[in-house]
C-alpha cells in the first residue's frame, strides 16, 4: 500500500533527524530477509543501542540531500534501511555481524562517518574494528606484556643465584 503524503513527510523528518543526531549512519540493503530474521535483526541491533529505520530510497536521497553531508552519495541498491547510533563504530559493526549471520541477505552499502559519505569498503573496514572493551583489554595486555617479561627475567635471575 502506498504511503500518504503525511507518512512520507514524517519519514523524511525522521530520516533528517537521524542523520543530524547520529555520529555514524550505516546504509543497509536487506534483500530477501524473512519476517523472523528481520525481528532478530531489529532485536540484536536494539540490544547494542543501534537504531534501524527502513525507508524508501527516494525519501532517503531527499533527506541526504537536505542534510548537506559532504562527499558523494553512494549507490543505494535493493531494499534500503539505515542503522544509526551514538557510538561511532557500533552501527557498522552490529550490521556486519548480521551480514555474516544471514549470508548475503543483509549487506552494508555505505554510510556517513564523521560528517561525510563513505563507500562500502570503508564502512566494512570500520565494522571490523573491535569494540571499546576489547580494545581496552588489548591495551592493558600491551602495557602488561613488558612488565610480565621483566618479572620473568628477575625470576630466572633469582633461580640462578639460589642454585
Structure description:
The protein is an alpha+beta fold and 163 residues long. The chain has two domains: 5-129, Alpha-Beta Plaits (2-Layer Sandwich); 131-163. It is built from six helices and five strands; from the N terminus they run H-E-H-E-H-E-H-E-E-H-H. A five-stranded antiparallel sheet has the order 2-3-1-4-5, with helices on both faces. Strand 4 (106-113) and strand 5 form a beta hairpin. It is elongated and about 85 Å long.
Number of domains: 2
Query: SSE order in H/E notation?
Result: HEHEHEHEEHH
Q: What is the assigned CATH homologous superfamily of the largest domain?
A: Ribosomal protein L10, N-terminal RNA-binding domain
Overall geometric form: elongated
What fraction of the residues are assigned to beta strands by DSSP? 15-25%
The end-to-end span amounts to 86 Å
Strand order of the largest sheet: 2-3-1-4-5
CATH architecture of the largest domain: 2-Layer Sandwich
Q: Low-confidence spans: pLDDT under 50, at least 5 residues?
A: none
What structural class is derived from the secondary structure elements? alpha+beta
According to CATH, what is the class of the largest domain? Alpha Beta
Amino acid at each position: 500500500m502506498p504511503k500518504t503524503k503525511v507518512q512520507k513527510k514524517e519519514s523524511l523528518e525522521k530520516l533528517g533527524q537521524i542523520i543530524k543526531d547520529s555520529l555514524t549512519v550505516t546504509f543497509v540493503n536487506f534483500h530477501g530477509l524473512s519476517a523472523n530474521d528481520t525481528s532478530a535483526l531489529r532485536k540484536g541491533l536494539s540490544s547494542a543501542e543501534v537504531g534501524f529505520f527502513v525507508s524508501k530510497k527516494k525519501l532517503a536521497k531527499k533527506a541526504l540531500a537536505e542534510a548537506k553531508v559532504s562527499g558523494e552519495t553512494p549507490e543505494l541498491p535493493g531494499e534500503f534501511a539505515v542503522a544509526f547510533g551514538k557510538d561511532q563504530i557500533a552501527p557498522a559493526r552490529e550490521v556486519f555481524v548480521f551480514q555474516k549471520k544471514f549470508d548475503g541477505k543483509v549487506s552494508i552499502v555505505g554510510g556517513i562517518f564523521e560528517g561525510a559519505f563513505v563507500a562500502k569498503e570503508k564502512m566494512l573496514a570500520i565494522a571490523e574494528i573491535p569494540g571499546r572493551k576489547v580494545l581496552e583489554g588489548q591495551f592493558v595486555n600491551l602495557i602488561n606484556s613488558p612488565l610480565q617479561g621483566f618479572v620473568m627475567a628477575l625470576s630466572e635471575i633469582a633461580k640462578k643465584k639460589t642454585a
